[in-house]
Design brief:
The structure is a single chain. The chain has one helix and 13 strands, in the order αβββββββββββββ. The chain is mostly beta strands. The strands form four sheets. Strands 3-4-6-8-10 form a five-stranded mixed beta sheet, with no helix packed on it. Strands 5-7-9-11 form a four-stranded parallel beta sheet, with no helix packed on it. A hairpin with a 5-residue loop joins strand 3 and strand 4.
């Protein structure tokens, strides 16, 4: 009898799916990279792709990942990927948190809108292009790659405010 009572009590503590992720169609899902399955928004799984990729192609080398905002979450571009990030707009869902471009990765990062990007760490990337507009990166830590010791891959060869693979930027060793 005690076992039945314990089982009944345990059943009352089970978490149920939130109505905030309920959906009828994929258009009802507010998170990017989610689809409607069995009445609930669930994250799409893309094998071997980083989280938050709107589009991902692992059939080509280097692999490609396209990201439009991360909802404020951090993003990590793994080795062997070219990651193109567009962060901006209005509200927290249109922002990107900390962005890290790993060793042997290449990143093209566009931050548009007040505080639309968090810290940006490209110091280990083999290529990094970054553009900040409209106060998008004010107060943000930006780490650009270095070449030949302490020479940064920026036009003025100091760290930040924007990494550049353009001629004179020297930020392309992929």
């Amino acid at each position: 009898m005690k076992l039945l009572v314990l089982l009944a009590l345990a059943a009352c503590t089970v978490d149920r799916k939130s109505e905030t992720v309920a959906c009828t169609t994929t258009a009802d899902c507010t998170e990017s990279n989610h689809t409607c399955e069995n009445g609930y928004c669930v994250k799409l799984s893309q094998s071997d792709c980083p989280d938050h990729c709107d589009t991902c192609n692992t059939d080509q080398t280097p692999h490609q990942c396209f990201v439009t905002n991360t909802g404020g979450d951090s993003f990590d571009c793994p080795s062997g990927f070219v990651c193109l990030l567009s962060c901006g707009g209005d509200g927290s869902r249109s922002m990107c948190g900390t962005i890290t471009c790993d060793t042997n990765s290449a990143c093209v990062i566009s931050c548009d809108g007040a505080s639309s990007c968090g810290d940006i760490h490209c110091d280990n990337a083999c290529e990094c292009d970054m553009a900040c507009s409209n106060g998008a990166c004010q107060g943000t830590q930006i780490d650009c790659p270095r070449i030949m010791g302490n020479t940064y891959c920026t036009v003025d060869q100091t760290n930040g405010p924007a990494c550049s693979a353009a001629p004179g930027g020297r930020c392309n060793s992929c």
